[in-house]
Write a structure and sequence with these properties.
By secondary structure, the chain is α/β, with parallel strands linked by helices. It has 3 domains: 91 residues, Alpha-Beta Plaits (2-Layer Sandwich); 338 residues, Rossmann fold; 86 residues, Sandwich (Immunoglobulin-like). Helix 7 packs parallel to helix 8.
Length: 547
C-alpha cells in the first residue's frame, strides 16, 4: 500500500531542476572602484562619477543604477555591489558581455534564480546514523570529547530561513548583541533594523523564519531549519537531536519566501550581513550548473577576505558537472555519502569536489512557525518519515552534507578561530578518511581527527614569535607571527643548504598577529627553515615538506 501511495505521489511531484532563469531586465555588477558611483538621494540611485562610464551605460541601454544593499550599510565594500536596470528589448547577456569587457566592473551577471539541493527519498529506519554509525559516520562523539563548540563560533545558514522558535534551534541561535530588539531603530548602524537573529534577505525584513516556498511541487520551507539542525541544533539538552557544532551559534539568513524568487541579489545581502556581523562560516545548500557565477565569486572573495569559511553542496545530479557556488574558488565543496559508507547514488562528484560527508537519510529539525497544508503533511509523512506531531524528519541530498561539514568547521574554528579557508580546507583534507568511492568525492570528513589535531594549531602567543601549521605539510603551510609594533619585516624560507627558496615578506607590516599561506611549489620533500627578521628580533621555525 505504501509503495502504491508513493507511486501516486510521484505522478504529480516533480523533483527540483536547475533552470537558467533570471530576473528580466536586471544585471548585477561589482564595480572595480567603489568611488566610480555616487548617490545624491539617500543611497539611490547610484550615479556614475565619470562621464565616460555614464556614456557606456547609456549606450548599453542601462536606464538606472542602484546600490544593491541598504543605504545605511554602504561601507566601501558594500558600495561596489550594484543593480543595473536594462531597457526592455535589449539582449541582457550581450549587455553583460559589453560591460564586463569595459574594465569598469569586477563582475557582471544576470540576477540568476537559484535552487535548493535536496533530494526527497523514501525514509529508512534509524535516526542520525551520521553521528552514531562508527564506520559510515564522521566520529562526532569522539570529537565532542575534546571540543563542544564555542558560542562565539557562528555558522550562517543561507537558506529558506531558520525557525528560531523551534525548541531545538532557539537555544543555539545567534543574537545580535548590539541591537535593542523591538524598538524600531538600527541601534548598531549596520543598515538592518531590529535584526535579532539575522535577516530576511528576500523580503528585506527582520524575521528570518521560514514561509511556505514551493519548488518542484513540494513545500521546501523546511529546508533551512533542517540544515540548521544538522549544523548546530542544541545538544545535550534532552530535546530532539544533536547538532554537529554542539554549542556553536546559528545565524539565520533567509533568501526566499512566499512569492519571492530565490536570486543572487538576496544572496548578496546575506553575504553582506554575514561579513558585517563576523560569521565564522557560511553554509550554502543551493546552486546550479550555470557557469556565469563571476558575481558570486566576488561575494565569496569578500567573505574569504573577512575570514569566513564558505561551504557549499556539490549537487544531486549524479554526474561530474560542476555546480555553483560549490565549484567557485575558496568554497569547500561537499559530496554526499550514505550509511553503507558509499557515495550516495544522487551525489554529484568529480575532481573539483573537496570533501564527502553523510547526506542520505539525515534526521533533523523542521519548521514549527507555520502550519502545514494537508498535501504537504502527507508528502512529508510518505517521503521523509514525519510523524505528523514532532517537528523532525529525514531528508536526503548534498544539502544535508553541506551543513554537517559547516558544523565541523564551527567546531574547528572554536579551537582555532584564526583558521581561514585555505588552512581549513587543507586541515579537513589532511585529517579526513581516505575512502574508495565509485567516483571521486574527496576524502570523508573525520570530525575526531579534525579536532584532535588542533593542539598543533594554537595561534602565536608571544609578540615576535613564529609558528607554522600544519607541520609537516603538503603542499601549503600557514606561517603566523606577531609584531609588538609596526615596522619593517623580512620573512624568507631556506633549504637545508642555506639557499633562499622563497621570500615571502620584505617590507613594512602593521602591529599585531598576522598570517600568510606559503605553497611549496616545485620543491622536493625535505626540511626547510622559515626565518623572520623584525625589530623584535630574529625567529625561525623548521618546516617539514612531505610529498
Amino acid at each position: 500500500m505504501r509503495r502504491l501511495l508513493l507511486a501516486l505521489v510521484a505522478c504529480f511531484v516533480t523533483l527540483p531542476a536547475f533552470a537558467a532563469d533570471y530576473t528580466p531586465g536586471v544585471l548585477l555588477a561589482v564595480a572595480a572602484d567603489p568611488a566610480a558611483f555616487r548617490s545624491d538621494l539617500d543611497g539611490q540611485p547610484a550615479l556614475p562619477a565619470d562621464p565616460a562610464l555614464a556614456a557606456l551605460l547609456a549606450a548599453q541601454g542601462v536606464e538606472r543604477v542602484e546600490y544593491l544593499l541598504p543605504a545605511a550599510s554602504l561601507s566601501a565594500r558594500a558600495r561596489r555591489y550594484l543593480r543595473l536596470s536594462v531597457a526592455p528589448g535589449r539582449d541582457l547577456l550581450a549587455v553583460r558581455e559589453a560591460l564586463a569587457a569595459s574594465g569598469a566592473f569586477r563582475a557582471v551577471s544576470p540576477d540568476w534564480y537559484l535552487h535548493f539541493l535536496l533530494l526527497p527519498n523514501d525514509p529508512m529506519l534509524g535516526q542520525q546514523w551520521h553521528i552514531t554509525n562508527p564506520t559510515a559516520g564522521i566520529h562526532l562523539p569522539q570529537a565532542w570529547d575534546s571540543e563542544q563548540g564555542d558560542p562565539a563560533s557562528v555558522i550562517a545558514i543561507v537558506d529558506t530561513g531558520v525557525d528560531w522558535s523551534h525548541p531545538d534551534l532557539g537555544p543555539n541561535m545567534w543574537q545580535n548583541p548590539d541591537e535593542i530588539y523591538g524598538n524600531g531603530l538600527d541601534d548598531d548602524g549596520n543598515g538592518y533594523v531590529d535584526d535579532r537573529y539575522g535577516w530576511d534577505c528576500g523580503a528585506n525584513d527582520n524575521d528570518p523564519r521560514p514561509q511556505p516556498y514551493v519548488e518542484g511541487g513540494i513545500d521546501v520551507g523546511f529546508h533551512g531549519s533542517h540544515c540548521a539542525g544538522i549544523a548546530a541544533a542544541a545538544t545535550d539538552n534532552a530535546v530532539g537531536i544533536a547538532g554537529a557544532g554542539w554549542g556553536c551559534r546559528l545565524m539565520a539568513l533567509k533568501v526566499v519566501g512566499t512569492g519571492s524568487p530565490f536570486s543572487v541579489a538576496a544572496v548578496t545581502m546575506a553575504f553582506d550581513y554575514a561579513i558585517a556581523e563576523h560569521a565564522d562560516a557560511i553554509s550554502m545548500s543551493f546552486g546550479g550548473t550555470l557557469s556565469d557565477f563571476g558575481f558570486m565569486q566576488a561575494l565569496v572573495d569578500d567573505a574569504s577576505a573577512a575570514g569566513i569559511v564558505c561551504v557549499a553542496a556539490a549537487g544531486n545530479n549524479n554526474n561530474s558537472t560542476p555546480m555553483y557556488p560549490a565549484a567557485l574558488n575558496r568554497v569547500i565543496s561537499v559530496a554526499a555519502t550514505n550509511s553503507a559508507n558509499q557515495r550516495a547514488s544522487f551525489s554529484t562528484y568529480g575532481a573539483w569536489v573537496d570533501l564527502a560527508a553523510p547526506g542520505e537519510q539525515i534526521w533533523s529539525t523542521i519548521m514549527t512557525n507555520y502550519p502545514l497544508d494537508f498535501l504537504t503533511e502527507l508528502l512529508f509523512m510518505l517521503l521523509y518519515g514525519y510523524d505528523g506531531v514532532n517537528p523532525y524528519m529525514y531528508s536526503d541530498g548534498t544539502s544535508m552534507a553541506c551543513p554537517l561539514v559547516a558544523g565541523v568547521v564551527g567546531l574547528v574554528r572554536s579551537g582555532a578561530p584564526w583558521m581561514d579557508h585555505d588552512a581549513m580546507l587543507q586541515h579537513l583534507v589532511e585529517t579526513g578518511d581516505h575512502v574508495v568511492y565509485d567516483q571521486p568525492c574527496g576524502v570523508k570528513v573525520n570530525a575526531e581527527q579534525a579536532v584532535a589535531s588542533l593542539t598543533a594549531a594554537e595561534p602565536v602567543a608571544a609578540a615576535g614569535g613564529l609558528r607554522a601549521w600544519p607541520n609537516p605539510f603538503n603542499p601549503a603551510v600557514t606561517l603566523r607571527f606577531a609584531l609588538p609594533a609596526a615596522g619593517r619585516v623580512r620573512l624568507a624560507v631556506y633549504d637545508a643548504a642555506g639557499r633562499e627558496v622563497a621570500r615571502l615578506i620584505d617590507g613594512e607590516r602593521p602591529a599585531g598577529e598576522q598570517s600568510l599561506l606559503w605553497r611549496a611549489e616545485g620543491l622536493a620533500s625535505g626540511v626547510y627553515l622559515a626565518r623572520l627578521e623584525s625589530a623584535a628580533g630574529v625567529k625561525s621555525e623548521k618546516l617539514v615538506l612531505l610529498r
